[in-house]
User: Which sequence fits this backbone?
């Protein structure tokens, strides 16, 4: 059957991680940890992880693919498991080879299910390293593996926030490469190794809020990179709920109205796991700055006893919120295809456009 | 005139700071900084700050008192300026004497305007110190100065979060004293000295979210202290917007439903500076767990161009939200009088009850 959806009616989930990888991936990581425990400066080699296509199919078909079908979403922008990026672990070579394997697995998924998954890259960040390896890996993922974006960790130290603020020149090499390749970054931290921050709660949400404030206060960043685009996940952390506070702070800082600041640069995803939260997001943030996402199968895997549906079945919330069809189409696909500007050419290649 | 309001119709702002203190207070602080710059272990003495009653009147009458009248609130639970607590500065003696002066000033305000301001204590926390000095100062403030609560800083290191989690036994001495005196604590950080966190934005809101997660995951804390009560300010940080996420995380952690967890222990204030945010708070969090507050004159001092009113005039938002009168009275005074259990006896003393 050669039935093609109206592309504006595609439902693209811009935030999914491969959280169900075969155990061989975890075993490779454990060996890395053994190696750096012996010697923190251990120079890793890439090595081989032996995972068959059938193993990948098994790990996907009863999980993310099944969920896509059940929930009626078409495709997922898919990246390695965020909490496993673990940039704080080991040294630059630890992150480099771990990241290459994680991205290679994503690539294989996109080859096995080209209409369902499109790749988004993990970057081999490391707290004490510059961004050279990340620039190289982003280039490899986009130009060789067909990926359309990346996840950028604002805090590779895992809760200690030892890196410069996101508008600092430290980050410019990756922003240059993103601009050159025309790909956006989702700002996404990984596991917290800080005793006060809980990975999928306070750490994720705190990081989202922190990233937003770096960007809103940035003086030259978006002049230096006029096409740079960032997605702030988990519905923007605390930002939409405190939109009045941030608008007020912006006024006091004499920066332009926040709607102008975010217009072409900052997008929020819909990973907010209850109807009232999604309603607020839709009521507060311009529709053009919202991208559909669920992060399934992710942090919150259960069924909400209040609704009988999965907490992370965010499509239901968007379906049920008070927007017209045109607005919903923007959120489900049109905005996402604009922000991920390489997406359309991939969609054409796999006959979805 | 001996007209007395129905006490259930009082409008009590449970979160105000003395942000307009005469310059002598700041000068004292600057001298402390000079002293500890010379010698980080400098042993301060309390010394004297020469501020007259007239100076205090000047600093209040055209500021918080005027705002109370204009906005139609009756009284404010008033504590020293939160961003100036600066627990990360200096050593234990630095914080001890600074805090005593700040609290003494609050006391004088409560004596000058006994019907308008009731004291809430700053604590002399210090990152490397135990809580002995804080326990002593809380006792002094409650038993000698008539204060009804305190502000507890979960991160006296100013953004580095070097203290144990809030359910750790490290904090038990202050919880014991709070329980003994029957006073609650508002969990409130101070200025950030961390380059990544912005004091009144990402730092405040991140801390609120972090504190909530410590409490929700606490295993024995509320068994050990069955009467302990905390207010999480700024509308609970990111928590109500992500109530679905936290409910889902609670399920995965096999802890009781969050409504049960918070019921007798965790309260959110209304320092959310736009109508839609307040509406979400009211729709998501049980009314019994919400306390009216504005934090005026605080972080956001301007007028919202979208409404023509002050961003922090939160009474308007509560007035305009979709609640009945009984619910509003709970938020404006009934809940607050329950949480601050020493409040009624003070209100009687000043003839407001």
Assistant:
């Amino acid at each position: 059957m050669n039935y093609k959806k109206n592309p504006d009616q595609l439902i693209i989930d811009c935030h999914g991680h491969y959280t169900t990888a075969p155990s061989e991936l975890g075993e490779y990581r454990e060996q890395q940890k053994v190696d750096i425990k012996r010697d923190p400066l251990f120079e890793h080699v890439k090595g081989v992880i032996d995972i068959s296509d059938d193993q990948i199919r098994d790990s996907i078909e009863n999980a993310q693919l099944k969920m896509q079908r059940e929930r009626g979403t078409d495709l997922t922008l898919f990246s390695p498991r965020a909490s496993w990026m673990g940039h704080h672990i080991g040294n630059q070579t630890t992150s480099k080879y771990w990241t290459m394997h994680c991205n290679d697995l994503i690539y294989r998924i996109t080859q096995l299910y080209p209409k369902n998954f499109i790749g988004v890259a993990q970057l081999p960040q490391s707290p004490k390293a510059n961004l050279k390896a990340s620039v190289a890996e982003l280039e490899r993922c986009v130009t060789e593996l067909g990926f359309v974006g990346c996840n950028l960790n604002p805090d590779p130290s895992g809760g200690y926030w030892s890196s410069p603020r996101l508008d600092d020149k430290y980050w410019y090499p990756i922003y240059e490469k993103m601009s050159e390749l025309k790909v956006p970054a989702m700002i996404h931290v990984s596991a917290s190794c800080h005793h006060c921050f809980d990975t999928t709660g306070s750490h994720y949400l705190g990081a989202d809020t922190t990233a937003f404030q770096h960007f809103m206060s940035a003086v030259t960043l978006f002049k230096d990179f006029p096409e740079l685009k960032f997605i702030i996940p988990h519905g923007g952390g605390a930002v939409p709920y405190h939109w009045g506070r941030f608008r007020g702070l912006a006024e006091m800082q004499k920066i332009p109205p926040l709607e102008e600041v975010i217009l072409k640069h900052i997008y929020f995803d819909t990973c907010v796991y209850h109807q009232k939260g999604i309603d607020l997001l839709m009521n507060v943030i311009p529709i053009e700055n919202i991208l559909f996402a669920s992060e399934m199968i992710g942090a919150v895997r259960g069924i909400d006893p209040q609704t009988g549906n999965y907490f992370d079945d965010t499509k239901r919330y968007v379906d049920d919120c008070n927007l017209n069809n045109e607005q919903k189409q923007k959120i489900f696909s049109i905005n996402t295809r604009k922000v991920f500007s390489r997406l359309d050419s991939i969609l054409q290649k796999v006959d979805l456009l």
The first helix of chain B runs from residue 23 to 38. The CA atoms of residues 153 and 291 of chain B lie 19 Å apart. Chain B has one domain: 12-349.
